[in-house]
Amino acid sequence: MRLEFTKPASFIRAHSAWFIGALILAAAALPLFISDYWTDVCVFWGINVLLGLSLNIIVGEVGLFNMGQMAFFAIGSYTTAILSERFGVNLWLLIPISGLIAAGAGYILTGPIIHLRGDYLLMVTIGLNEMIRITLINNPFGLTGGPNGLIVLDQFRIFGHVIQRPIDFYYLVWAAVALLLFCLGRLQRSRVGRAWNYVREDPIAAEATGVNTRWAKTLAFTLGAGIAGAAGTIFATKMMVISPDSFTFMESVILFCIVILGGMGSIPGVILASGAMMVLPELLRNFAQYRMLLFGLAMVIMMIFRPQGLWPSRRWMTRLKEGGGE
Amino acid sequence: MRTGVASAAAVSAWRLPCRVKMVVFLEQLVNGLTVGAVYSLVALGYTMVYGVMRLINFAHGDFFMLGSYLGYTMLVTVLAQSSLPLWAMLCLATLISMGAISLLGVLVERMAYRPLRKSSRLTAVVSALGVSIFLQNAAMLIWGARYQAYPPWSVPEVNWAPGGVHVSLMQLLIMGISLALMVGLYMFVQRTTVGAAIRATAIDHDTARLMGIDVDQIIRIIFVIGPGLGAIAGVLLGLYYRQIHFTVGWSYGLKAFTAAILGGIGNIPGAMVGGMLLGILEMLGAGYISAAWKDVFVFLILILLLIFRPTGILGERVAEKV
Predict the structure, then answer these.
(1) In this structure, is residue B84 part of a structural domain?
(2) Domain encompassing residue A88
(3) B130, B167, B254, B319: which could join A300 in a potential S-S bond, CB 3.0 to 4.6 Å?
(4) Torsion angle defined by CA atoms of residues A111, A117, A122 and A123, in that order, rounded to the nearest 10 degrees
């Protein structure tokens, strides 16, 4: 059994440098051959991949059910809009600043709730998401612009070149994705990554072998929130207008499902699933209004016939073969 | 809508004379009990499914929403043509909606939940989310993305003002029907053989099966009762606020689930108490602090509760560790 699973994968791994190089070249050349419209679709795909990867740390790696990831994305986006428009802070600087603020919010907000188990954590994160969205609508201290949201007029500049066309954003977003993929790939194979997976599979055994589970969970949440916040800067700059409507509970649910459908803890799975979510509906424009209907149906069918996700991570497959499970 | 008017009056309530203050308080209490009764009915569905299957049935809010829409459709199409008196029309609309949604509940359980009963909790939760998204979008495609309104003639406009406190017939009906249903359900679960089987299944599926209980049948019964009560709540809410939208499933479902946790999840009287309490807290918060922030209070209560007393007000079961 094991050989069957790993054969194609091991072939790719043996020649991984070639595959990665070819993939990067293809991705870099892609926008030269497609229209601006499709480039834009790919930009939003990339932003979704960033978000999906950030949530994958929390849901996939550590197994914490977080259905409020959009709250941190919103914090990052609004931080960008406020600091950029009011104080004229440079957008490049705002990527780490938004990330740090969102990470701080993640650290503080999840501090009291991190110990909650599965379903309860799910409900609380939904609550957090809604609380943040309502706060944004209610315009505290005149900061968030209420239901209409805020405008971001500043643009990224690099060596005098202004990033404003879809193709510019395409390179910006996918460069960010590539960087994140590199870092997360390293992290997944590190001591921290193994500790995370251990906590997901069996928190008690993890604790018994010296993994500080609370620390591992908090780290995952903080990191995930920070990445989502940093992605918020790119999103705000791309959209130019951000409003509470972009950060609803529904969006969080879709993101959560992207991670599960891709395969918990699987990085290629996130890319695949968010691609399916963003690109497929564009291909089937006649069915655009049925998009979410089909998505819901696909979730049920996937859970029944392929609960491990589209592209399960290797550690997950190992567990399935050993007859594990909850 | 109505709460907006009431709370606008209440915002300035601090400066009013004592007697008027009392009236405003009582009115908010009545509003809270009315909404709370609806929360309780919906919360019962969550709590029963959670009690028996350990599953957050995210689709339950959408059963409630679909119940509301079906009642609306029955009223404006078939029943509007008939020459029945209003009360008969309302009863028929509620019953038909209840029956249809119960059927849908059983169907959903059979197709989306039963195949997953042996798999991990997360899998079933995601399946429930899928059902919820599916139903929500189906409702949007069928009835449109705009608000639909129950026709004005369908709502009996009878109001009283004993001692200046405004109470409508609809409010009394909602509270009365909910209370009757909840007492009935409690009796059913506590006093009948089927009820005992439900309680046994909630404690342990395998042991219940050894005692000769058909667990599948029990779960089917749960999925007849829960969505049916949700559908009734949907029609009642539609008649009360008059406006319905395909997203009310999410918003009310979330609050009803909060109510279920508030009272102690898996606990039937808990769902009733939690629903009423949540409704009252929400309306008093809307009246005395700020209407715009009322949903924030609701979730703040939920979070504080989960931190300090995860078993809820009436929950006796020890919180499961891990």
Answers:
(1) yes
(2) 39-246
(3) B130
(4) -90
Q: Which long-range contacts (CB under 8 A, 24 or more apart) does A142-147 make?
A: A143/A78, A143/A82, A144/A78, A144/A82, A144/A244, A145/A243, A147/A243, A147/A244, A147/A245
Residue A94 and residue A79 in contact, taking contact as beta carbons nearer than 8 Å: yes
Q: Is residue B315 part of a domain?
A: no
**CA–CA distance, A188 with A196 (Å, rounded to integer):** 9
Q: Would you say A197 and A315 are in contact if contact means Cβ atoms under 8 Å apart?
A: yes
Residue B184, domain extent? 2-308
* Domains identified in chain B, total number: 1
Cβ contact B129–A299 (<8 Å): yes
Q: How many CB atoms lie within 10 A of CB A131?
A: 22
Instruction: Chain A: give the shortest CA distance to residue B309, in Å.
Output: 12
Give the containing element (helix H, strand E) for A161.
strand A161-162
Chain segment A154-212, per-residue pLDDT in tens: 887 778 777 778 888 888 889 899 899 889 888 888 889 889 888 888 888 888 888 88
pLDDT for the residue numbered B251: 85
- ipTM, two decimals: 0.82
The two three-digit tokens of residue A289, written as one number: 């209004």
Among residues A123, A114, A126, the alpha carbon closest in space to that of A217 is found at A114
Please check whether residue A173 lies inside any domain of the structure. Answer: yes
- Over residues A59-100, the pLDDT tens digits come to 888 888 888 899 999 999 999 999 988 888 888 888 999 999
Cβ burial, residue A46 (10 Å; 0-12/13-18/19+): buried
CATH number of the domain bearing residue B174? 1.10.3470
pLDDT tops 90 at residue A279: no
pLDDT of A283 above 80: no
Q: What is the mean pLDDT of residues A265-286?
A: 82
Nearest CA in chain A to B118: A326
Cβ atoms of B211 and B156 within 8 Å: the answer is no
When divided into structural domains, chain A yields a total of: 1
Residue B293: list chain A partners with CB under 8 A: 134, 138
- B121, B299, B310 ranked by CB distance to A127: nearest: B299
Tell me whether residue A123 is in a domain: yes
**B122, B252, B261, B294: best to mutate for the A interface, most A CBs within 10 A:** B122
Under 8 Å between Cβ of A221 and A107: yes
On the question of pLDDT at B9 being above 70, the answer is no
Q: Say how many Å lie between the first and final Cα of chain B, rounded.
A: 43
A146 within some domain: yes
Cβ contact B129–A253 (<8 Å) = yes
Assigned domain for B318 exists: no
How far is Cα B36 from Cα B283, in angstroms, rounded to an integer? 9
The answer to the question of residue A30 being in a domain is: no
